[in-house]
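Issue 218. Parser rejects a valid record. Input:
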Amino acid sequence: HRVDRRQRQMCIRDRAEALKWLIDDGVVARFDISVEWVRESFLGAQIIAYSPGGDSLHTGKYLWAWNGIN
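Output the parser choked on:
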């Protein structure tokens, strides 16, 4: 079974909304977010946070396993 497109989009949207407060509070000016399937059932993401001055504050790399997916 593969994760359907709607389920993937909801997961990505939820993760992005979890970061939104940083922009709303002026801590971060923007994020660059890229996601890709790095292997079967593993979604990889790279998130770069930029300060209001434009400097890169943090680069995070993350993997999410989709349980029960072969």
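Fixed in the parser; the record now loads. Residues 30 and 44 are 20 Å apart (CA to CA).
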